[in-house]
Amino acid sequence: MSFVIGSACIDVKDRRCLTECPVDCIYEGRRKLYIHPDECIECGACEPLCPAGAIYFGDDVPPEEAGHVEAARQFFARIGSPRGARAFGPIDADVLPEGTG
Amino acid sequence: MAVIPYVAIVGAGPSGLYLADELTRTHPHALVDIYERLPCPFGLLRYGVAPDQGKVKAVMETLGEVLARPRVRFLGNVEVGVDLPVPWLRSAYHAVVYATGAPRARRVEVPGADLAGHVAAGEIVSWYNAHPDRSFDPAALAGASSVVVIGGGNVALDVARMLSLAPAALADTDVPADVLDALCTAPVSDIHVVYRAGAGVAKFSTPELRQLSRMEDVELLVATPLDAGDAPTRQGARNIALLEQWRSRRVDRPRRRIHFHFHTRPVALIGTDRVTGVVVERAGLGRATIPAQLVVSAIGFDGVPVPGLEFDSTSRRISHQDGEIVPFGAGAREFVTGWAADGAVGVLGTHRASASAIAARIVALAIPPLPAPDPAAVARRPVVTKQDWTAIDAAERELGRLRGTQRVKLTDRSVLEPAAIVAR
Question: What is the ipTM of this complex?
Fold first, then answer.
């Protein structure tokens, strides 16, 4: 199960994770960053880089952050799989779990 | 008219290809020549990442797109410093970047380390990954019921897992037929992973550790206490939680047992002509002997010198300051990136950031015009081109189709070198 970015990224968007993702699968929304669940190769490069500690391995997402798994799926449902966040550019939208932000 | 920057990258592994990606993205005209010692590209992705890591191996598709760009040339089968002298590169390019990685695997140096049956992880990794220079003799595996793997990183886990995978899972990888046979028939029953420090500071990445528990007929055992003193890293804390779960997991009639020994360091390898066991010192628990017919040192990798460049024998890396080789005089600016610069640390992608920093420095150079480099006229060995690689790639995919998997790798230089490619 892919890595997931949770609430701690909202309105922070440090972006350090973007630079080291080997498959460039971390996309920028309006208020937070999103890991593409189908493009992520689960290498774990991003997780220790996040100063906010916002990145979770799929199986270890704490219950209060679990909504971000489905939110990321919905976020990418409209976009498909562009295979390259940099070329695709920022996306002027967000999908956040209910009661977030 | 704009001056075209000519850039040579030495090493077609992930670091070199990430740099080629950055250079061709951020400069409208830069031409990039990628030199590779081996006939095939992708370095560690092809020859280091374990064959069952399909998702990571798939990064080859992404980096293959970089290689396919018109402004990128591939010059395989050419070892810079041997087949092509460093001063020639210096004179022919505006910038030369060494991304030669860290291919030399370390071995523990304890009494008995020279016994037959003790190998560096690199040897076994090169073997199952069909490296053209592989030297591991699979006969060592044919007599091994117990294997000790020394080390606390992902390579140690890779080796433990590759020696544990079920035949069907192995067949669905790119390993060549001889490797498949040797792994499927190996009599291994127990694998001991021995690490000198605690689980909280081991370098295992949590996803890799978790992969072990996906093998349902493999029993995972933790032989020593988990909480002996270290302040765990965030990753370490997660790993400890996972290992704790395994303590209560029991497997009926396991095909393999993997034992974790933390705070345990090897003191000696014992045996007469071949290794038969490893004497270990366990913190607070004294000495013990773990039987082993095969011992694998997975304690890290070092860089290798490039003839013509200064090599720091302490750090085992090409000498550089902040990524740049101190100028020799006139000619190309020279840089070092990836594992060749920073040592063998981090996961794939860790060095993408340094690739973009070096690309930015190269793009900013003020450069005089140069004639287009013609390495094929100078190289002492026939060059494997992009078209040749495409032919190798197609042949491997066809072999894969026959086995019902994506790819089966070709190993021997005799079939990978240009003469053989033409004859095919």
Answer: 0.85
